[in-house]
Specification:
By secondary structure, the chain is an alpha/beta fold. It contains 5 helices and 7 strands.
């Protein structure tokens, strides 16, 4: 059974919250910079396989939503990601602010974010598939703390 207008079954598991372990910039084959968030997907095969699925099936539909959670020291910034085609998957990236704010500002400027799901140190040799997502620049900027 599905909720009207959504492709996800009502009994879908809660979305995973993946802490961002590191941030950086990846240059594509045209030397264009991609703000990059490194996450550990060891326990989340549904997220680990998304880049491969998108490479085979096409980009599909991805929506993002941002939420800022004030903490005693800094903020937690949750970037929710919902993929509805070619497969359904929902998860959130958890950024620690202010330490990881730079990559979010760069992503808002660029309008996209690269999610690295394997060891970045081995990327040059292994050339893994990582998930690139488009972002709503204005919505992201509105949620970023001053």
């Amino acid at each position: 059974m599905t909720e009207p207008g959504l492709d996800a079954p009502l009994d879908s598991p809660e979305p995973a919250i993946l802490p961002v372990l590191d941030i950086g910039t990846t240059l594509d084959e045209n030397d264009q910079p991609w703000p990059t968030a490194v996450v550990d997907v060891t326990d989340h095969p549904e997220v680990a396989d998304l880049a491969r699925v998108h490479a085979v099936e096409g980009i599909g539909d991805i929506a993002t939503e941002a939420l800022v959670v004030p903490l005693d020291e800094g903020h937690l910034f949750l970037l929710g990601i919902r993929v509805t085609s070619p497969v359904f998957c929902a998860f959130a990236l958890s950024f620690a602010l202010p330490d990881q704010l730079r990559v979010l500002l760069e992503a808002a400027e660029a309008g996209h974010l690269l999610i690295a799901t394997t060891d970045p140190e081995a990327a040059a040799d292994e050339q893994p598939l990582w998930l690139a997502i488009d972002l709503d620049r204005d919505q992201l900027r509105l949620q970023l703390p001053d």
